[in-house]
């Protein structure tokens, strides 16, 4: 019943939005993401996919005969900047829906501002479970961390047979939400959580925490963080001579990680895998590759869908 209520609300909201759009000559959709800073690689896929979807919509006559444009807004994946961006959008009478934000901390900072303004938003990537429970105006087209974190604990236990695990997490809403879901499920399964250590987005030297982990002799290190820090963690662990497996979530699924030779054998979850795509997803991959000369990542795929929903 809960799913039915949410879907009905979304349909009603979209119908109200369509009335707003009739009064405009064109439709401008803000797409908020980190386009600069350490997570700019996430934003590249977001930008490309949003522009591609708008181009395809316009080739088919737009929406209700109106051209669709994309307005890129950079929040740096930072809560403070996300608050500034969301306040600007909430005060713009021409904005009737927002696609974004990407990072959970940024989305949670923007959420109360959009809620107060009754401005609808859809995030293609924020997985913190609080988001869907905090506003009737915020939607997402991605799974959430209560599912993802629990799945990773089950997979570590049942598929990989890892029984001794340490957790190395970042102090942000995304990472801590994942950590909580993973730890809860791991404890239910009787896995031995030998240690938990935290780091910030500004950390570049992870050897003090890794040295502690090395002494504990875990089977695996769970890294529920983002790729820029994750790739450093793995490289520094290998340099310390750690013989251990690494696994994480969708935040590690990025080219910077995939190009790291030390990350061979890394296990991650992802909502989209280009190599396994078929049907409409294959058509999207082909169009994206033709236009941008590369495969889309999952941020691109989910943004493409989110713009289509918007």
TrEMBL record:
Keyword check for Transferase: no
A UniProt-annotated Pfam family: Peripla_BP_6
Membrane found in the keyword field: no
Biological process (GO), any one: amino acid transport
Domain of life: Bacteria
Residue ranges constituting the Leucine-binding protein domain according to the UniProt record: 27-307
Keywords from the UniProt entry: Amino-acid transport, Signal, Transport
Assigned protein family: Belongs to the leucine-binding protein family.
Identification of the protein by name: ABC-type branched-chain amino acid transport system, periplasmic component
Organism: Candidatus Magnetobacterium bavaricum
Organism placement in taxonomy: Bacteria, Pseudomonadati, Nitrospirota, Thermodesulfovibrionia, Thermodesulfovibrionales
